[in-house]
Structures are given as structure tokens and as C-alpha cells.
Design goal:
Elements (H helix, E strand, L loop, with lengths): L2 E2 L2 H23 L4 E7 L3 H17 L2 E7 L5 H13 L5 E4 L9 H7 L11 H8 L8 H11 L9 E5 L6 H9 L8 E5 L6 H5 L4 E4 L17 E4 L3 E2 L5 E2 L4 H4 L5 E2 L6 H22 L1
Parallel strand pairs: 1-11, 2-3, 2-4, 5-6, 5-7, 7-8, 8-11
Antiparallel strand pairs: 9-10
Helix pairs in contact: 1-10, 2-10, 6-7, 6-10
Bound molecules: guanine (GUN).
The site of guanine has 9 residues, from β4 and α6.
């Protein structure tokens, strides 16, 4: 029987754990973690993501603020807002929802977020620390992928993980995370991408396949070996409006030993790890 890795249920459990820790922090030290979400423009998917993130904050007892800016916001205006949030003692974490409108240099904005408030884990310090094997804030989606494996007792150590996709948000940091020493690490990792000549030849060798390339139903049944674990990071809308992942779920689930669904797999885990990082940010800032 193929195990369906229920990210929604695990996210609920973990968000309950985070809520208890937030309550304790607030009671014992009078600290209330807070997340400032910045949304520029009117990308409908981004609006939904930010709304879901704020709702989860609210349920966990984390304060949140939405800074919604028009699509024609200039880079200096956005940098000015980030500078204000960087010094606001109420704000533990800053989330700038990506993508940003054309004309704004994303890396300049990411670089401007104070390193101790970088709860997305996209900034140069967060990435450098992860690369060095001493992470501070892990990027939320890779962290969520690792946690769904670990909390379902799926062994990562010594396993061959093939990641399809090399983005700065998912593929690249996930490779670093799964190959680092320690629990949930010690994997042998292969990263393939759009210029890899034969992706299937690699995914067929994998114990665990993670797909994050943004192509609906890309990974087919004949691209994995029977018994492989399959993690689907994609969220795509088909022409008929259906939400599907990067994995052909119905086909692949016939031969995988475990698989994450879309929706209800990695999406809720990403939100959960954002709450985890925001709580940690509040604690770290209290200590300095
Ligand atoms: N856009 C797509 N995924 C993410 C994410 O995890 N964080 C932010 N800030 N933007 C995103």
C-alpha cells in the first residue's frame, strides 16, 4: 500500500506544537512573535499565499501585519519600508512575498532584510550559514520537505535523493540541507534541471525523488523505480482550473512506496516552517 504523506495533518500537529511554544514565550518572557508580510502588486496566487500565512500566524498566537503596496512601487520605496521593519522591535520576522514586479531587483530586496529577521531564509547570511553546515533560518519549503520525511520515519541517511529543479528557493538549498551531517541529513544528493540531458535516467536511480520545476504532472510512473518515495513541491493550475503538482499523482502512486499529494502535501508544511522560523527569530532577537 502506498503511503500518502499527509502534509495538512502534520502541519496541524506541528502548528499546535508551535502555538504552545508561542504561548509559553509570551507568558514567561512577555515576548509575542510577530511577522511583517510585504506584498507588492496584485498577483492573485501571492495574495492567497500571504493570506494563508497570516491566518496560520493568527492561529498560532503570532502577530502579523500586512504591508500591501501597489504594483508601481519603486525599489527605493520598498527598501525604505524594509529599513523601517528591520528596526521595529515588534517585528520578529519579515516576509517579502516573491515574485516581485518587474523593475524591482529581488536580490537587492532580499539582501536588505536584517539577517536576524530573515525568516524566509533567502538572504546571504542564512544561505551562507546553511552552506557552512551551521544553519540559522532554513528556507521554509526545503525545511518542510525534510520534516515531512523525518516525521513520517522515512530514512534520509545514506539514501540517494534526486532533486529535479535547482531554484534558489527550493532545489539548491534542499540539496545542501539533505546532504549536511545530522538527523534528516547524510543523504547522497543529485540535482538535475532543465539542461540535464536525461532526467529519467537519474530519477530512476533514486530512493527519494523531489520534484520542484513548476511543470504540471512532469514526473511519470516510468521515471521512478518501484518503491521510491516521491515528494511533489509543484503547484500548477491546469487550463480547466484544477490544482496539480509536478508529479503525475495517479500514475506515480501506483508504484511509489510513499507520495505527497497536491494540495495538502508540501504547501501546508512551508507555512508551518515559516511559523517555526518566526518563533525562533523572536527568541534569537531577545537573546541579543
Ligand atoms: N514565493 C514562492 N514561494 C515563496 C516563499 O516561500 N516565500 C516567499 N517570500 N515568496 C515565495
Amino acid at each position: 500500500m502506498t503511503q500518502i504523506l499527509d502534509g495538512k495533518l502534520l502541519a496541524q500537529t506541528m502548528q499546535g506544537e508551535i502555538a504552545a511554544q508561542v504561548a509559553e514565550l509570551t507568558e514567561t518572557l512577555g515576548i509575542r512573535p510577530g511577522l511583517a508580510a510585504v506584498l507588492v502588486g496584485d498577483n492573485p496566487a501571492s495574495q492567497v499565499y500571504v493570506r494563508n500565512k497570516r491566518k496560520a500566524c493568527d492561529q498560532a498566537g503570532i502577530q502579523s501585519w500586512l504591508h500591501q503596496l501597489p504594483a508601481d512601487t519603486t525599489q527605493p520605496d520598498l527598501l525604505h519600508l524594509i529599513a523601517q521593519l528591520n528596526t521595529d522591535p515588534q517585528v520578529s520576522g519579515i516576509l517579502v512575498q516573491l515574485p516581485l514586479p518587474i523593475g524591482i531587483d529581488e536580490s537587492a530586496i532580499i539582501d536588505a532584510v536584517a539577517p536576524l529577521k530573515d525568516v524566509d531564509g533567502f538572504g546571504p547570511q542564512s544561505l551562507g550559514l546553511l552552506t557552512a553546515g551551521t544553519p540559522r533560518f532554513l528556507p521554509c519549503t526545503p525545511f518542510g520537505v525534510q520534516q515531512i520525511l523525518v516525521r513520517n520515519n522515512i530514512r534520509v541517511e545514506g539514501q540517494h535523493v534526486v532533486i529535479v529543479g535547482r531554484s534558489n528557493i527550493v532545489g539548491k538549498p534542499l540539496a545542501l540541507l539533505l546532504m549536511q551531517k545530522g538527523e534528516g541529513g547524510n543523504a547522497t544528493v543529485t540535482v538535475c534541471h532543465s539542461k540535464t540531458p536525461d532526467i529519467a535516467a537519474l530519477t530512476k536511480q533514486a530512493d527519494i525523488v523531489v520534484v520542484a520545476i513548476g511543470q504540471a504532472r512532469f514526473l511519470k510512473k516510468d521515471m521512478i523505480r518501484p518503491g521510491a518515495v516521491v515528494v511533489d513541491v509543484g503547484i500548477n493550475r491546469t487550463p480547466d482550473g484544477k490544482l496539480v503538482g509536478d508529479v503525475d499523482f495517479d500514475g506515480v502512486k501506483e508504484i511509489a512506496s510513499a507520495i505527497t499529494p497536491v494540495p495538502g502535501g508540501i504547501g501546508p508544511m512551508t507555512i508551518t516552517m515559516l511559523l517555526h522560523n518566526t518563533l525562533r527569530a523572536a527568541i534569537l532577537q531577545h537573546a541579543v
